[in-house]
Write a structure and sequence with these properties.
globular; alpha/beta; 5-stranded mixed sheet
Length: about 725
């Protein structure tokens, strides 16, 4: 039986100098790749290790070590870099590993050559029986967060790669870039094995250099810059990365002409996202699969595509849907789960709900165990609605619930500063598109996203629904509800109104040239210290302004006066922190103290004192809206970029770093405080003051001295947002 290395070796013999693997400016031909693989395999045989965990970032060493394990007959267990320490320990113990392979070194590791290093594990690891023929064990975090090992054979993995090759051969793909971690089975098989069996060129780069952060973070600018630099012909994406690419194409950051095929999977894909891609000329195609079936079961391709479906099944499997609507697969299934008996069933029940249409396209409707049944007896897949919410509303996270309720509801997390008015408009539009039984009753806007550390998400970002349901009352209590079933739409609390009515004024701050200059590395020490000096001149007035405001507030705002006491206690002395930062930058703190503020800051402070003394003292909170909201959105990320560019010590960033975190807490407190402001005159005074302060604070930011840009085009491109 031919193996994957045999197939690659045949290509190496036919076209030895064809480029197989590239990273940065380095490359391997098919001949040199297979020579390196066989050298590594010999080293593995000499070491006598039989079960090895493959760790680390996306590198050529990872690819070669993976193939070398197949040549050497060593069971390979990829270790996802996003697994927690507890999950990794569970994986090592459950798989009975006797060594780990790494693409880097330390004193405890042995070099095997080709940039691969081996870490020996204790011989006391329990030996777990594996099904006969196991070549790879791939771990998935599952819905409970506890990793489960799926045992795969060489024949199954090669069959999947070959079926994909047959489906995609007419496209003539020559260059693939790996964007997902190589330990992810989908990228491992469809992103590594498939290109190599096609004789194409595979590019692997460290994930951080591509803008991929952890298991669910992405820096859109870095990702788009990498795609423009490497110009691959094919990619594999999860839905969130697909959204980033679509935003980039719409902003003219990314030209879609180079791409031949982009697969999207790993979660429910909104039909509207696929339609949007088609309109933009981005060749985005949905697929479906699971680890037990070698990662891919069905796939849409150009000329045989049905948006909203997962595609026709690949040639190496058969698919059917049983009477309970469960998708079942036969052919080239997994050997079994680690620690369980070998699989004997002919048909594998995937646990997914779906149907096959008359033309043989597979439609996936969600997980059977997650099904919501409304009070009217209608079945709803939460994954379907969550995909629509993430794409249709632009939220970062959505979890739908409502079993037994008349209509479903959802927890959502949005980006800081996202306009409530836009959110409301999009929600109305989404509900208009949905069938009546699936229209959302209430959105609970979370102040902080659900996370794996809280036990609400698995390591790869999927909701742990049982845990969320158990804690739902507490989660909802700490959220902001948006009701959609009230006549005329939901009632807007004052904080929402404040955000909405100052949205246009806020752009004078967020579009200041300094924001893009920092991100582009065009900021100098003079720029930073000038900003800090202006910050000193307004921060030194924060506590006096609070005191003046508290003394002028009427009795009906006594609760607000009490809140000011808490603010004052936390804000005392913060202006001295700024002088410490200036001293760490090499400036004389007393000279900075004695300097004069920019006119914009002088006017801003004078305006606030005037409003407190001669107008409505509640106007002070317009300044809080501006300064703390801006700090939450910009302080920490911009401070990190400035420090990296200028090479300054941490002691020069006590103000920005502390306020990025501190003001997140303040801002949530401020949100609740504002929602308690009921008097229309007080509300209008705060809105008017916020607009003025946005203008004056934005004028200050626009006055920061900056070096000239060397590329007018780059300045223009950076004015667009892609995330």
């Amino acid at each position: 039986m031919a193996t994957l290395p045999d197939t690659i070796q045949r290509i190496a013999e036919e076209t030895p100098e064809r480029t197989a693997l590239v990273s940065g400016s380095g490359s391997y031909s098919y001949r040199s790749l297979m020579e390196a693989v066989r050298t590594l395999a010999d080293a593995l045989v000499r070491q006598g290790r039989r079960r090895i965990g493959l760790c680390g970032d996306n590198t050529p060493a990872w690819v070669m070590a993976d193939l070398a394990c197949q040549v050497a007959g060593v069971v390979c267990v990829p270790v996802p870099s996003f697994f927690s320490t507890t999950q990794v320990s569970h994986l090592v113990q459950q798989a009975g590993l006797d060594a780990l392979l790494w693409p880097d070194t330390d004193l405890a590791r042995t070099s095997l050559g080709q940039g691969v290093w081996m870490e020996r594990l204790a011989d006391s690891q329990e030996s777990i029986d594996l099904p006969a023929g196991t070549s790879k064990v791939t771990f998935t975090s599952g819905s409970t967060g506890t990793p489960r090992g799926v045992c795969l054979s060489l024949a199954q993995m090669l069959a999947t790669a070959e079926a994909l090759r047959q489906r995609l051969a007419p496209l003539g793909i020559n260059e693939h870039l790996c964007l997902l971690p190589l330990a992810t089975l989908l990228e491992n098989i469809a992103g590594v094995y498939l290109p190599l069996t096609m004789g194409a060129t595979l590019r692997v780069e460290p994930l951080a250099s591509l803008g991929l952060l952890g298991s669910s973070g992405v820096d859109a600018r870095t990702l788009v810059a990498a795609l423009n630099r490497w110009q691959p012909e094919s990619l594999i994406l999860v839905p969130e990365l697909a959204r980033v690419l679509l935003d980039a194409v719409e902003a003219d950051w990314l030209v879609p002409d180079r791409f031949r095929f982009i697969a999207v999977g790993g979660g429910k894909v909104a039909a509207s996202l696929l339609s949007r891609a088609q309109d933009l000329g981005l060749p985005l195609y949905e697929g479906y699969g699971l680890s037990e079936c070698g990662s891919v079961v069905a796939l849409n391709v150009p000329g045989d595509n049905r948006p909203g479906a997962a595609g026709r099944p690949l040639g190496h499997v058969q698919v059917r849907v049983n009477a309970a609507r469960h998708i079942e697969v036969r052919g080239h299934s997994h050997l079994g789960y680690l620690g369980d008996r070998q699989v004997t069933q002919e048909w594998l029940d995937t646990g997914d709900l779906g149907h096959l249409d008359r033309e043989g396209f597979l439609h996936v409707d969600g997980r059977s165990k997650n099904l919501i049944i409304t009070g009217f007896g209608r079945n709803i897949s939460p994954e379907w609605l969550e995909a629509e919410l993430v794409h249709g509303l632009g939220v970062h996270q959505a979890v739908v619930f409502g079993d037994g309720a008349p209509r479903p509801s959802a927890l959502v997390a949005v980006a800081p500063g996202q306009s409530p008015s836009v959110m409301d408009e999009r929600l109305r539009g989404l509900n208009d598109r949905l069938p009546d039984y699936a229209r959302l009753d209430t959105l609970y806007q979370l102040h902080h996203p659900l996370s794996a550390s809280d036990g609400y998400l698995t390591a790869n970002g999927r909701p742990v629904r049982d845990r969320i349901q158990a804690d739902l009352p507490a989660i909802i209590a700490g959220s902001y509800p948006i009701h959609t079933n009230r006549p005329g739409g939901h009632s807007m609390a004052f904080f929402e109104r404040l955000q909405a009515e100052t949205e246009q004024a806020r752009t004078h701050v967020t579009r200041a040239p300094v924001i893009n200059a920092v991100r582009e590395g065009r900021v100098t020490l003079e720029s930073y210290t000038w900003f800090l000096t202006q910050a000193f001149h307004h921060v030194k007035h924060t506590v006096p302004l609070m005191m003046a405001c508290g003394g002028r507030l009427p009795d009906r705002l006594e609760s607000v006066r009490k809140a000011l006491v808490e603010y004052i206690e936390e804000e005392i002395g913060h202006h001295e922190w700024i002088l410490d930062d200036l001293a760490a930058c090499g400036l004389d703190r007393e000279e900075c103290r004695a300097s004069r503020p920019d006119l914009s800051i002088e006017l801003m402070v004078a305006y606030l004192y005037h409003q407190i003394d001669r107008g409505n003292p509640a106007a002070f909170f317009g300044m809080v809206q501006v300064l703390e909201g801006t700090s939450v959105e910009l302080a920490t990320p911009l401070a990190t970029q400035i420090q990296t560019h200028l090479g300054l010590p941490d002691s020069a960033f006590s103000y920005l770093y502390s306020h990025g975190a501190l003001d997140q807490e303040h801002f949530e407190f401020f949100r609740r405080l504002m929602d308690g402001i009921a008097d229309p005159d007080d509300q209008q005074a705060i809105i008017d003051a916020a607009r003025v302060v946005y203008r004056l604070y934005g004028d200050m930011l626009r006055g920061i001295p900056l070096p000239e840009t060397t590329s007018g085009h780059y300045r223009e491109a950076s004015d667009h947002a892609v995330a």
